[in-house]
């Protein structure tokens, strides 16, 4: 199979094409055809992006300036929609700003990983930091942060780096290692935004020895759940009498967000701690843990409902437990491959596994 990128001058519309790959490729196995189709779906998305970009470069009138359809399309594709709910989560914002105030000694050099709008970087300046370096992997968000910071007259105190933290070099992007590392890069299941590898890298390469970290540690909690309705969010067998279970090849692997109260369910255990991470000292590598969960109620255990408690600094915590429906973070659902019938009084053995960004339970 040959992949080409056409330029606008070679007579074909610009974009990626999978040459020699008629669809479907006859005689190939169903698995190979799914693999090829997944690449075609990806190429289609890339083509749309290339087309928008080439149009914009070809004609100044088509520049994707704010207010145009092209800008809106790019913005919706590249900036996750949860940023709005997150920024309106006042309990989160207040807890983070207070933690930043407590964590930063006057005159410190601060590294903020994941600028978003620049919120934590600006809170750090207000808290007395001498200078804040804030990095953002999404160039559009980095530019938004840069402009918001300028509007607040803080451009002299904050340097916005348009790059992922793992690409930062001390001596080029940072004058020296930072005294304080601050970040809020957690999803509903804690690790989905890359908290573990990001902190692992930052404390090894970007933070001064003995430097301060915010957040400090995190715990993941779980509870056995019986909920066919929640299973239906990511599994399907038949629809209108037809077997459509092939759809499961595109189901989400690992944890995904659910708002517990939205879906009918029964809880089959008490909440329990699944794993804890000390962000300053633990290896923060992929791993696993055997869990033995005492069952409190008879039922069909479909998986674990999970949430985190994040220790920010000095007694300040953030938590997305089901009893905190105000939090913009939903809970995370980890489904078993096969449900287990359980009886109150017995225990259920399972293994929690975490990769760099996904939680699973088997
Ligand atoms: C959850 S948002 C928080 C934004 C902001 N700190 C706040 O609290 O409002 C995390 C942001 O970090 C960015 N991000 C995640 N990991 C990153 C990394 N390793 N380096 C740079 N940016 C990162 C994402 O693109 C996202 O914009």
Automatic annotation (TrEMBL):
Keywords associated with the record: Methyltransferase, S-adenosyl-L-methionine, Transferase
Classification via CDD domains: AdoMet_MTases
Superkingdom classification of source: Bacteria
PROSITE patterns: SAM_MT_PRMT (PS51678)
Domain Protein arginine N-methyltransferase: 233-353
GO terms for biological process, alphabetical: methylation
GO molecular function per UniProt: histone methyltransferase activity; protein-arginine N-methyltransferase activity
Protein name, as recorded: Protein arginine N-methyltransferase domain-containing protein
Species assigned in the record: Streptomyces benahoarensis
């Amino acid at each position: 199979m040959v992949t080409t990128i056409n330029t606008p001058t070679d007579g074909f519309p610009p974009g990626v094409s999978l040459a020699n790959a008629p669809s479907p490729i006859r005689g190939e196995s169903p698995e190979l055809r799914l693999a090829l189709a997944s690449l075609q779906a990806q190429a289609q998305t890339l083509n749309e992006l290339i087309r928008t970009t080439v149009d914009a470069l070809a004609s100044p009138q088509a520049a994707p300036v704010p207010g145009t359809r092209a800008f809106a399309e790019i913005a919706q594709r590249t900036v996750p929609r949860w940023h709005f709910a997150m920024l309106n989560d006042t309990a989160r914002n207040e807890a983070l700003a207070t933690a930043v105030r407590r964590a930063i000694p006057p005159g410190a050099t601060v590294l903020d990983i994941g600028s978003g709008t620049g919120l934590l970087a600006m809170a750090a300046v207000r808290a007395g930091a001498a200078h804040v370096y804030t990095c953002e992997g999404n160039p559009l968000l980095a530019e938004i942060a840069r402009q918001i910071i300028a509007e607040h007259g803080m451009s002299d105190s904050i340097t916005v780096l348009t790059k992922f933290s793992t690409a930062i070099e001390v001596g080029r992007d940072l004058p020296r290692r930072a005294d304080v590392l601050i970040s809020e890069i957690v999803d509903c299941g804690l690790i989905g935004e890359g908290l573990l590898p990001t902190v692992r890298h930052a404390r090894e390469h970007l933070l001064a020895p003995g430097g301060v970290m915010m957040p400090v540690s995190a715990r993941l909690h779980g509870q056995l759940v019986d909920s066919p309705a929640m299973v239906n969010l990511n599994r399907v067998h038949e629809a209108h009498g037809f077997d459509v279970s092939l759809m499961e090849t595109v189901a989400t692997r690992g944890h995904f967000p659910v708002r517990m109260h939205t879906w009918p369910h029964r809880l089959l255990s008490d909440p329990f701690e699944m794993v804890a991470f000390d962000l300053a000292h633990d290896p923060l590598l992929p791993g696993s843990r055997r869990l033995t969960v005492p069952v409190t109620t008879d039922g069909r255990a479909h998986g674990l409902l999970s949430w985190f408690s994040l220790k920010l600094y000095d007694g300040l915590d953030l938590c997305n437990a089901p009893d905190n429906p105000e939090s913009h973070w939903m809970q995370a659902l980890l489904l078993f491959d096969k449900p287990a019938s359980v009886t109150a009084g017995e225990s259920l053995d399972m293994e929690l596994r975490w990769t760099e960004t996904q939680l699973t339970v088997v």
